[in-house]
Amino acid sequence: MSERVIADFVGEFFLTDMDRDDPVSGRIVMSPKRLVLVSDDRKVTIPTDAMFDIAVGHVPPEMRAFFSDSVTIAYRDGNQRRMAVIEGDSDTVDKFATVLFKAQLNGQEATVQHPARRGGRVVDSPVTKARLAVDTGTLSFSGPDTEFTIELATVTDFEKESRTLAGETRPALSVSHVPEMTTLVSVVALPSERVMNLLGRYFRLEYSDIVEGLEDISLSDDEVQVLVAIYSAGEGVDPLDVVSADASQTTMVLNGLREKDLIADSDVGTVLTPKGRVVVNSRLEEVNA
Question: Is the pLDDT of residue 91 over 60?
């Protein structure tokens, strides 16, 4: 492959049109334009723009006996829909999934409205064009008339919906996030249904890593007060300086929040973890609703 290689590793793969029931060992090589799967007796090339779905960790039922840490790619081969399941060690699969999504999404021209709502109120922001850049935990948009970043740790909700943007009704992603103390809703539309679906997949994958297990977290009023105080005063402050409560009681609350992985101690002081930011942002969303 003479193109720039962005992934190259040895693993196992299975293709739906293989004349066998078990995966084969081989080399997985990817450039921004194509994915190449090579075994001893087979070479398959999948163009990047033929991929219409990417699932991480989901394995078709008939292949669950063979795969654990995997990426499943659905793609079109002429008029046929096919599927490739690729397995490697856990770290490799995570990195490969990120590479796949970046190859699909980076540089896409997006139609955006930012913000479409501010604190629950509709905002008459212009609809503009911007280039999308994907990085770990962030979506950044840059264009002649707008520039903003959505940190996934500040997101409280997102949904796919039909929106009329620049006089055209199209599928879009509506993202509620709290970059500071006010809830914003940003609307993002990409040029095709295919890449919109992949953006939704990426969003769910990254966001699920943060919110996993949040449903089981219960918080007392004191814990919510401390979390919001840390958030409002700025991470790195001493919570005992900003919480108007008995120091010994606050210390007990802080210890409980550490055990729930909502705050952590860093070189600059006490900070919210990504999970803690999501919890606080959800509480602010409830207040602003």
Answer: yes
